[in-house]
Write a structure and sequence with these properties.
Layout (H helix, E strand, L loop, with lengths): L7 E4 L5 H15 L6 H6 L2 H14 L5 E6 L5 E9 L10 E7 L9 H15 L5 E6 L3 H7 L5 E3 L25 E4 L9
Parallel strand pairs: 4-5
Antiparallel strand pairs: 1-2, 2-3, 3-4, 5-7, 6-7
Helix pairs in contact: 1-3
């Protein structure tokens, strides 16, 4: 798919791992500043993340799809990953957007919308009736980008830890699960 100003959405390859690793780390540091402990964000390592991305891609069974947005100059302008909905051991016939990150300088240029449109279309083509998206309540940008088009429901998630400390404000860490939002688009409530 070709998006805004020559943007091309395509499957991620192993050669993209370094750029995707940098996009994810920079994206987390920008999006979650003030929501996730600073020590955790500062401790994120681009090289280690690139290696994790490469390993996940190599070990994948095809159920998780990684897409990148390639700019006209060949650099990556964003990354998204989606696949089957996950909620512990519960499996449904729904899809889930696992990740969508952009370099901070690409925010507001239509890159995120182009990735989201492509993911939504691919989920529909695969017969997934709904696509779920989990966002932190404090992540106003992510919540606002889906709120007009998707219903808002709170849902708990199992606890996880941020490098030994517990985040007090988000459902990811389990301390305040009502602060985690689940956008649940469907035929009458499309994500886009």
């Amino acid at each position: 798919m070709t998006g805004p100003t020559g943007l091309r959405i395509r499957p991620m390859t192993a050669d993209d791992s370094a750029e995707v690793g940098a996009i994810r780390v920079r994206g987390w540091r920008h999006a979650y500043r003030g929501m996730v402990p600073r020590a955790y964000l500062d401790g994120m390592d681009v090289a280690a993340e690139a290696e994790r991305q490469r390993a996940r891609l190599a070990a994948g069974d095809g159920s998780v799809v990684n897409l990148v947005a390639e700019a006209a100059d060949g650099t990556l302008a964003g990354w998204a990953a989606y696949g089957p909905y996950r909620d512990g051991e519960v499996r449904t016939g729904d899809g889930e957007l696992y990740a969508l990150y952009l370099p901070p300088e690409r925010i507001g240029q239509g890159v995120g919308r182009a990735l989201l449109t492509e993911v939504s279309g691919r989920c529909a083509a695969a017969g997934l009736p709904r696509m779920f998206l989990w966002v932190l309540k404090e992540n106003a940008r992510a919540a606002a980008s889906t709120r007009p088009r998707a219903s808002r429901r709170t849902a708990p998630r199992s606890p996880s830890r941020w490098a030994g400390s517990r985040c007090r404000r988000c459902g990811t860490c389990g301390l305040s699960p009502a602060d985690r939002l689940r956008s649940t688009p469907g035929p009458d409530r499309p994500l886009l």
